[in-house]
Amino acid sequence: MKPVVSALNAWSCVVISLFAIVILSILGSLFGSNNHAYTGSEGEPEDGPAVAASIYIAVLVYAGFFVFCGFQAYLHILDRRGGAISLR
């Protein structure tokens, strides 16, 4: 199987997706717990769990990017070694 994206794009996507998953998970847990710093002041959303649900959907999207780009990076590693089955 051949990679679809370049190695630089694949590794960049892996790193960015990993940071996004961590940061959005923290934000989602803060909104989900109705933390007063995020839901208690003026101009902030009143329904923290609803905001947390939409953030967790974004986490799932980034997890999909992480898996796809990680697989692409793995294919680049295999391609550099000479294929899935190396005769060396």
TrEMBL record:
Keyword Transport: no
Stored InterPro entries: Ribonucl_Kappa
Protein location: Membrane
Chief localization: membrane
Keyword Membrane set for record: yes
Keyword line: Membrane, Transmembrane, Transmembrane helix
Residues annotated as transmembrane: 7-31, 51-78
Name of a matching Pfam family: V-ATPase_su_f
A single cellular component GO annotation: membrane
UniProt-recorded name of the protein: Amino acid permease/ SLC12A domain-containing protein
